[in-house]
Specification:
single chain; alpha/beta; Rossmann fold; six-stranded mixed beta sheet; binds adenosine-5'-triphosphate; AAA+_ATPase; Cell division ATP-binding protein FtsE; P-loop_NTPase
């Protein structure tokens, strides 16, 4: 589903590579943690998958898309196969919960009747039924992240990328969000989550890919965050 072949990325303004000779393969339906200290290249990894950056060297595949070679007009098609969740939720503050989720479908031209049907379904899936008409500021952080997950998932993407999705949440709320991501993963969606959260990585015992200075230094099938870090 995701494959990086000998990928390096050197940003124009930096002499040191953000990623160096990274090869990683993620199968359909896997759940993978991407860990590593600040500046190790996690966000760069995710940005390459979205074609927000192109590699300096190597090849990036997502599903059947050869990402770096994709003509500009086909980039939206790539991005429709990928849902994204961020630490800071990134909700539209002037829209209700339901409108935030609906908007993701409107922008890709889904018919109104589909939107009316699937938005309540996905809100139920994430445990927000009954909160459809709330504004984001009327929700807790955990609830806002559920809206963001609903929005990322409503189009049933093949891949869900989560960049520090629990970074602004307390431990209990973080566990709830992880249960939700597991649930989404069980539908067959491939989940790739960048995180610094030791306790979550240790409790989930999923695949762990660790980056350090842009290199993969560990790839464990059922990993933990690491001792003494
Ligand atoms: N747009 C950019 N231009 C120049 N250098 C960049 C750019 N984005 C990232 N870098 C550099 O690339 C390296 C990797 O950064 P990246 O953001 O991928 O790391 P990260 O592991 O996601 O860090 P964090 O956990 O703090 O988000 C760092 O040295 C960073 O300074």
């Amino acid at each position: 589903m995701i494959r990086l072949d000998s990928v390096s990325k050197v940003y124009k303004t930096s002499s040191r590579p953000a990623l160096e000779n990274v090869s990683v393969e993620v199968d359909k339906g896997e759940f993978v943690f991407l860990i590593g200290p600040s500046g190790s290249g996690k966000s760069t990894f995710l940005r390459l998958l979205l074609r927000e950056e192109v590699p300096s060297k190597g090849r990036v595949m997502v599903s059947n898309f050869d990402v770096a070679k994709l003509p500009r007009r086909k980039v939206p098609r790539l991005r429709q196969t990928i849902g994204c969740v961020f630490q800071d939720f990134r909700l539209l503050t002037n829209k209700t919960v339901a409108e935030n989720v609906a908007f993701a479908l409107e922008v890709i031209g889904k018919p109104k009747r589909t939107i009316t049907k699937v938005v309540p379904e996905v809100l139920e899936l994430v445990g927000l039924d009954g909160k459809a008409d709330r504004m984001p500021h009327e929700l807790s952080g955990g609830e806002q992240q559920r809206v963001a997950i609903a929005r990322a998932f409503v189009n049933r993407p093949l891949v869900l990328l989560a960049d520090e999705p629990t970074g602004n949440l307390d431990p209990d709320t973080s566990q709830d969000i992880m249960l939700l991501l597991e649930r989404i993963n069980r539908t067959g969606t491939t989940v790739l989550m960048a995180t610094h959260d030791h306790s979550i990585v240790d409790s989930m015992r999923r695949r762990v890919v660790e980056l350090d200075h842009g290199r993969v230094i560990r790839d464990d099938r059922r990993g933990v965050y690491g001792v003494g870090r």
